[in-house]
Amino acid sequence: AQSVTQLGSHVSVSEGALVLLRCNYSSSVPPYLFWYVQYPNQGLQLLLKYTTGATLVKGINGFEAEFKKSETSFHLTKPSAHMSDAAEYFCAVSLNTGANSKLTFGKGITLSVRP
Amino acid sequence: EPEVTQTPSHQVTQMGQEVILRCVPISNHLYFYWYRQILGQKVEFLVSFYNNEISEKSEIFDDQFSVERPDGSNFTLKIRSTKLEDSAMYFCASTGQPGSYGYTFGSGTRLTVV
Question: Contact B48/A102, CB-based, under 8 Å?
Answer without folding.
Answer: yes
